[in-house]
Design brief:
The protein is α/β, with parallel strands linked by helices. It has one domain (5-263): Aldolase class I (TIM Barrel), CATH 3.20.20.70. It is 48% helix and 14% strand. It has helices at 16-32, 48-60, 86-91, 102-107, 112-124, 137-142, 145-157, 162-166, 186-203, 206-211, 225-231, 247-263, and strands at residues 5-9, 41-45, 66-69, 96-99, 128-133, 169-172, 213-217, 237-240. An 8-stranded parallel beta barrel has the order 1-2-3-4-5-6-7-8, surrounded by 5 helices. Helix 7 runs parallel beside helix 9 and helix 9 crosses helix 11. The radius of gyration is 17 Å and the shape is globular.
C-alpha cells in the first residue's frame, strides 16, 4: 500500500522565526497524540527564506517532519538573479518541490516547457516533484475536467523514464477550489485521482501507477479531510494551503487523514 502524505503549502507566509514556531508546535502536538510517522508522512513547504531554519530545527530536535520548497529554477547556477537551484534545495535537505501550482502558472507565468525542466532538475537532484494539476471553473462547466487534468499530467511526464515517473507525486487541485472555501466532493476527488492513476498505468506501467502518490488540494480542512480520504480510494493524502499555517488545525488534518487511510 502507498504511504499517505499530508503536505502543507505555506505560500508567501511565515518568516523564519514564525516557521520555527509553527513546525515546533506541530511536532509537539503530533508527539502528544503519539502519531505514527511510519504509517503517514507529514511535510511542510516553507518560503525560501525559512527553509534553513526549518532544516536546523528538524536536525537539532531529530524531528520526523519532512520539508521542501514551493518552486525551483530550471538552471543549476550562474547569473540568474533571484533564482534558487535544485541542488541548493537538496543541500538544505529538501525532499519535495512543488511544480506548476496554479498560482505560479497564473502570476509568473510558468509554461509546460518550464515545468518539464523543473521536474527534471528536481529528479536529478534526488528530490521528488509534487506536480499540481486541475481545471478552472470554465473547464468544469464544459465537462472536460478529467481530460484537462490528465492532459496536464501527460504534458509534463510523457518523456520521463519509468523510474522517474514512479518518483512523482501529483496533486489534483481544481483551481475553482483553491482559497475559495469551496471543496470538491469525494466523488470528484476520486474520479480525478483514478483517471490520473489510470493514465500512469497506460503510459508507463501498473507498477508505476501503484507507486505514484496522488493528493487532493483545495480548501482542505479538518471538517472535510476525513470524508474525502475515506471515500476517495485512489487518493493518498492532501496538499493543504491556508489550514497548514495553523499548527492545531494542521495536526487535526494529519491525524484524521491517517485514521481514515487505515480504515479504508
Amino acid at each position: 500500500m502507498r504511504k499517505p502524505i499530508i503536505v502543507g503549502n505555506w505560500k508567501m507566509n511565515l518568516d523564519h522565526l514564525e516557521a520555527t514556531y509553527c513546525v515546533q508546535k506541530l511536532a509537539w502536538l503530533l508527539r502528544d497524540a503519539h502519531f505514527d510517522y511510519s504509517s503517514c508522512d507529514v511535510a511542510v513547504m516553507p518560503p525560501f527564506t525559512s527553509i534553513r531554519s526549518v532544516e536546523v530545527l528538524v536536525e537539532a530536535d531529530r524531528l520526523k517532519i519532512q520539508y521542501g520548497a514551493q518552486t525551483v529554477s530550471v538552471t543549476s547556477q550562474g547569473a540568474f538573479t533571484g533564482d534558487v537551484s535544485a541542488d541548493m534545495l537538496a543541500a538544505l535537505g529538501c525532499k519535495y518541490v512543488i511544480v506548476g501550482h496554479s498560482e505560479r502558472r497564473k502570476y509568473h507565468p510558468e509554461d509546460d516547457a518550464t515545468l518539464v525542466d523543473q521536474v527534471r532538475a528536481i529528479l536529478a537532484a534526488g528530490m521528488q516533484p509534487i506536480l499540481c494539476v486541475g481545471e478552472s471553473y470554465d473547464e468544469r462547466k464544459q465537462g472536460i475536467e478529467l481530460e484537462y487534468a490528465v492532459g496536464q499530467v501527460n504534458d509534463i511526464t510523457r518523456d520521463l523514464s519509468e523510474e522517474e515517473a514512479a518518483n512523482m507525486l501529483v496533486a489534483y487541485e481544481p483551481v475553482w477550489a483553491i482559497g475559495t472555501g469551496m471543496v470538491a466532493t469525494s466523488k470528484t476527488a476520486q474520479d480525478a485521482a483514478h483517471a490520473i492513476r489510470q493514465h500512469f498505468a497506460t503510459v508507463f506501467s501498473a507498477k508505476v501507477a501503484d507507486s505514484v502518490r496522488i493528493l487532493y488540494g483545495g480548501s482542505v480542512n479538518s471538517s472535510n479531510a476525513s470524508q474525502l480520504m475515506s471515500q476517495a480510494r485512489d487518493m493518498d493524502g492532501f496538499l493543504v494551503g491556508g489550514s497548514s499555517l495553523d499548527p492545531e488545525e494542521f495536526d487535526k488534518i494529519v491525524r484524521l487523514t491517517q485514521k481514515a487511510a487505515k480504515q479504508r
